[in-house]
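Blinded run. Sample ID left blank on purpose so nobody reads anything into the name before looking at the predicted structure. Input follows.
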Amino acid sequence: MDMIAIRLAFLFSLLLTACSNNLPANIKTAPSSDLKYRHVLAEEVDTFIGKQVRWGGKIIKVMKRDNQSLIEIQNYPVNRYGLPLLNLPTRGKFIAKSDQLLDPGVYLEGLLVTFSGTLDPETTRVKKRKIIFLPVITVTDIHLWPHKRINADEGYTYTGMESQFRFYGKYGSGYY
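Blinded prediction complete.
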């Protein structure tokens, strides 16, 4: 009887370690300053240059410049684990700059991603009848969130554990 209990305990501990997530430490926990996107927009950017951030959102497009990858992101607030919450309002866009060459076939438009990095002195301004300010972060860690696409035209089916309306349909919003 004791041998069965030992085997079950071993199997249980093996299952627990197999189910633990592989989030980088900088994504899993917020930096001590926890600088939010809205703070950068509200105040002078120069005061935040070099500060650690953890921002996430939906991928708009992936670009390559020299030996770097630039990812344009539609910013969404992140939960305590770093998962972007699509059921909350977006505040704008930002650019994530990485020294790794990121494959546009992996980092597809519409997927959720979270970045940890530092606020860069570079800002991007796009002119289309108006000037748009896009903060740029230099990436230290990246986490592409799991996804399941049934149809390319449909949105995410994974809304995360902290969605306010977790059990209300495909988009997790409670409204259709």
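Unblinding after everyone has recorded impressions. The longest strand covers residues 112-127.
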